[in-house]
Give the backbone structure.
Amino acid sequence: MASDGVKVLGAWASPFALRARIALNIKSVAYDFQEENFLVTKSDLLLKSNPVCKKIPVLIHRDKPICESLIIVQYVDEVWASGPAILPSDPYDRAIARFWATYIDNKWYPCLRAILLPHREEAKKTAALEEFNHELALLDDTFIKCSKGQKFFGGDKIGYLDITFGSFLGWIRVLEKMGNISFIDESKTPNLFKWAQHFSADDAIKDVLPETDKLLENNVHNRRVLECSLLANTIDHM
Amino acid sequence: MAKGDVQLLGAWSSPFTNRVQMALNLKSIDYEFIEVNFYSNKSESLLKANPVHKTIPVLIHDEKPICESLIIIQYIDEAWTKNGQSILPSDPYDRAIARFWAAYIDEKWFPLLKELGKESGDETKAAIMRKIFEGAGLLEEAFVKCSKGKEFFDGDNVGYVDIVLGCFLGWIKVTESMAGLKLFDETRTPGLAGWAERFVSHNAAKDIVPEPHKLIEFYMMVQAAKASTG
């Protein structure tokens, strides 16, 4: 095990596991990454570490497991407090960051999921796309308020909200390629467009953000192998 | 701090409002409570304070709104560090565990109680009850681990998980009387049974958790109002 016993149970394609990895990178913490083949079987270590939800990611630090991606990010921020801060220092700004992170997971992510799954009815597909675009416009607006003129949601460096939303960038690019459509682009979401470029190029991100083509292959493979409902379960377990 | 600096938009019947009231009590913070009639027309002040979700509770501190009950509680803990005991544990690992169980209670367990209230089929209800009891079993284990033999999830004092779960005790009693079953009983979940009694008599909670009969009356009134509007 890496120094100080830090291990991440995750999957290379999982945006939730990516959050844990980005947080550790920001703090320059070395860790072991254990790839979980969650589509086939869950490892004994995963089941033992997260018996309640049986999901990745799990961070194991000094033999103690921490579950749920946003809880892991906050834990990393608090344990390695001497590194660059992930959450803002002001309590009100922290509340706003937590609010939008919860929004992304509870309201925005279901819209992404709705588009990733193949639709049988055209009307439902159109409705899902409209909602997705509407949500992105809201986030574009939120970026202006949070960033206060700087490069990231967190200001001049990557913060909590950048990690929460940015972890989905790979999958947004997959959707764009699959649908031959632009979601984050210069005219529709100009702020997110610029932000995405800065985010992807950041040192903490660039080696862990999955390549679009690899993700696309992964998604096509999964959709061939699995039924719709199983894919939905899969995404929920990522 | 003057009362005018802190306002809470909420409803007496809402456990999510109640838990914020408990957090404010734990920190001895004076506040103005503004009752919102959330189940019919939403007031202008609520729509202005929470334009995204239009839900209560909303804490307004120095004219800045904070939404979502768990986020509000953490804000209270971080903004008033000098007032009394911390609400969240001080150790990062214990904080992660507390956050985990708070999320479990809100996202997995309490929704089962709401689902039970909506279902009418016996078999469906029985299936939901099984899940509720399984969840109660997990919460019992969590209590044993977190409390480390002491009175509350947070140890000697009422803390985050105590108020996140404890705020539901009124509605839990309503569910128990409607289902004719005890959710936190002395045989299956002895830890939680003892904890529940201690919690409702604790200073932070005792005038906040509504009486079950008042909640039942309220529930009937809302159902009647829904039925009449179609």
About this structure: The beta strands of chain B are 6-10, 32-35, 58-61, 64-67. The mean pLDDT of chain B is 91.
